[in-house]
Amino acid sequence: MISKRYAGLLGLAVVGTLALSSCAANEAPAASGNSAGSASTLSGNLTGAGSSAQGSAQEAWIAAFQTANSGVTIAYDPTGSGAGRETFIAGGSDWAGSDSALSDEELAGTFASCAPDSKAIDLPTYISPIAVIFNVEGVDQLNLDAATIASIFKGDITRWNDKAIAALNDGVNLPDTAITAVHRSDDSGTTKNFTDYLNKVAPEVWDQPAADPFPYKTGEGAQGTSGVVDAVTNGTGTIGYADASKAGDLGIAKVKVGDEFVAFTPEAAAAVVEESPLVEGRGANDIAVALDRTTTDPSHYPLVLVSYSIVCETYADPAQAELVKSYIGYITSADGQSEAASSAGAAPLSADLASRVATALESVS
């Protein structure tokens, strides 16, 4: 059951496409844990780009941080995780927000904003369930398992009254309506997490590995989280996937975990992350999480994303390093995580994970 508090958060407006900057700071409360704006010695401009799932949280974080640090101006462009990583790698931003960690291939390359011979690291910042959203006339509740979700998005199930869907929804009057499955058209960490879940839990149907681009030429593509939500909202017989904070008033399917159908909650999403190992073979300060998608514990919600802040270990410009450390330190602190929970329904980092992130940030220079 989705908590009343979390359900209320889902109706928040989707953040705009471009810079979430200092104009919002004038009306925001000060960031807890930071000194008042008049006492802050920080100054300069900070630019980030990437995850649209982080959008609402970034809006709140930026406003609070700039209020506490009036000499700092921050812009965040929610272009999508793939574009954000590309921008950061090319030196067009000081950090990237990404719903998937850097790949081995990306780590093997160079990073234009980093000092020579320095690499980047992945720091968990934002934990959120991925909601399977739908808009089907006359259907308010829907149960789906991974194999059925995979068959829908692969294009094997094409009508809402298909026997596979009906078998999971006894007593629900499913219409004889064509299914329009909406996926991200851009490279997306949300897509990578969604396809990772389907490949791990229903590999007999979803035979493609996790990837930022949607792997099949089926359904309808839409740009960004807001594009998917808009397409599902304005379509007929539509289904899609999106960060849960953006689901709004759309129907949200329960996902089968073990023998039960589970609605997402921040707590259930956090439980999966807490019990998942880190990716092997990474540097000591690279905190990429290998999510356990195959859990059968119904107190867990395995269709979840961990969104990262990708930063340099050593910056070419020490002044930018100071700003990045201060801002990422705030958003991953207890105060910053509380702000994300209030503004975007995110699940806070566990105490252990937050401590690991703080230690990793200390090494950034």
**Pattern of helices and strands:** HEHEHEHEEHHEHEHEEEEHEHHH
Overall CATH architecture of the largest domain = 3-Layer(aba) Sandwich
Poorly predicted sequence stretches spanning 5 or more consecutive residues: 1-30, 32-38
**Outline, from the CA principal axes?**
elongated
CATH superfamily grouping of the largest domain:
Periplasmic binding protein-like II
Number of domains: 2
**Overall pLDDT metric:** 89
Share in β-strands: 15-25%
Overview of this structure, please?
This protein is α/β, with parallel strands linked by helices. It contains twelve helices and twelve strands. The strands form two sheets. Strands 1, 2, 3, 4, 6, 7, 8, 9 and 12 form a nine-stranded mixed β-sheet that branches. A three-stranded mixed β-sheet has the order 5-10-11. Helix 5 crosses helix 7.
Secondary structure elements and pairings:
Layout: H1 4-9, E1 44-50, H2 55-68, E2 72-77, H3 81-89, E3 95-98, H4 104-108, E4 120-135, E5 143-144, H5 146-154, H6 163-168, E6 180-184, H7 189-201, E7 220-222, H8 224-234, E8 238-243, E9 251-252, E10 254-257, E11 260-262, H9 266-274, E12 304-312, H10 318-331, H11 334-344, H12 351-362
Parallel strand pairs: 1-2, 1-3, 5-10, 6-7, 6-8
Antiparallel strand pairs: 3-12, 4-8, 4-9, 4-12, 10-11
